[in-house]
Amino acid sequence: MDGKRGRLLGIDYGSVRLGLALSDRGRQLAQGLAVYRRRDLIRDFAYLKELIARHQIAAIVLGLPLNMDGSLGAQARQVLHFKTQLEAELKLSIALFDERLSSAEAERVLLSAELSRRRRRGLRDQLAATLILQGYLDQDCHSS
């Protein structure tokens, strides 16, 4: 991506919410950061810019929800469009990470924790972002 300077921000894209996760400075571990309820692009980008400055984020990992056969569906095309807008606005490197099973895995983890449906809904996007970012970090660690 961009060397090993600064933290990475993981994003689980949704049209209503963005799940957000943050790496440690050594880029070994991901932790959930927040779930951001989207408003409009101007406010969404302002929020992300503030996060980037506050947490000294050097690059972004954006989950790409491919179909099970690896093809691009409607949601993946929305993510690619969002990536283009983010790159133009934030001027940061953005890596895509195959997130086919991250939301399902997040739901499985939350169900095993026996959380209420309402509590699961609030955490699912953040956990999915954490799984996306940790998957990227693990892959990057093994490819270095």
The tally of strands reads: 5
What do we call the CATH homologous superfamily?
A: YqgF/RNase H-like domain
CATH class: Alpha Beta
* Strand order in the sheet with the most strands: 3-2-1-4-5
Mean pLDDT: 87
The figure for the number of domains is: 1
Report the total helices: 4
Structural class: alpha/beta
Main sheet record: 5 strands, mixed
Series of secondary-structure elements, N-terminal to C-terminal: EEEHEHEHH
User: Roughly how many Å is the radius of gyration?
Assistant: 14 Å
Question: Percent of residues in beta strands?
Answer: 15-25%
Helix content: 40-55%
| Unreliable parts | none
CATH architecture: 2-Layer Sandwich
Question: Would you kindly provide a written description of the structure presented here, covering whatever features stand out?
Answer:
The chain has a single domain (7-143), classed as Nucleotidyltransferase, domain 5. It is 49% helix and 24% strand. The chain has four helices and five strands, in the order βββαβαβαα. A five-stranded mixed beta sheet has the order 3-2-1-4-5, with helices on both faces. The chain starts with 6 loop residues before the first strand and ends with a helix.
